[in-house]
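Reopening: Lipocalin/cytosolic fatty-acid binding domain-containing protein still failing for me.
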Amino acid sequence: MKSIILISALIGCCFAATPKIGKCPTPGDEKTDFEVSRYLGRWYEIKRSDTPSEKGVKCSTANYSLRSDGKINVTNSGVNSEGDNVVVYLTASIVNPDQPNFLSVEIFPGAPTASYWVIKTDYETYSSLISCVQITADMYSLSGWILSRTPTLDVALVDELTKLLETKGVTELLTNDRTGCTN
Ligand SMILES: *[C@@H]1O[C@H](CO)[C@@H](O)[C@H](O)[C@H]1NC(C)=O
Ligand SMILES: *[C@@H]1O[C@H](CO)[C@@H](O)[C@H](O)[C@H]1NC(C)=O
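Support: Ran it again with your exact input. Result attached.
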């Protein structure tokens, strides 16, 4: 299998299928005690918004690692509909030390940055997060993900996190296809 680097990205990025009118929501006071060091490492995608960048991609995972400059490398991996491995490298930065769960993701130079915030996580089992891109002054795109440290996650917990994301405006999450995954 060959590897393909996508310009657009997988988890935590970027444009949802249906842009909305208005401004990106700002994060509430969820998880202001967020500890990025506990969030590092590998996560499996359980559910996601229907973003064009992840169309047909299965077996998606994200790996977060801390760089010496304090930024975070985000490596998103998956398998596309042709069976090729796809990998996307992103850099995330904490914008405000008082809100460490709120990250800014550089997609590519000159493009609008995606904001990315962790709504709820216990670091060891699950995470739910939202990403928003302000596409124009009055148009934004909101996406959400549910991640897990293991390839599957308790159904009741997934339901709870799905409902939580719905209260933040993220609806119609798709379930990650993990049939035949080797990761
Ligand atoms: C995650 O990334 C780090 C740093 O690049 C690497 O050492 C580690 O092996 C990766 N973990 C997985 C599960 O890919
Ligand atoms: C972060 O990504 C850069 C560029 O891909 C790489 O050179 C560096 O080793 C990575 N650092 C960590 C801690 O993963």
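The chain has two helices and eleven strands. If you still see a failure, please send the error message rather than a screenshot.
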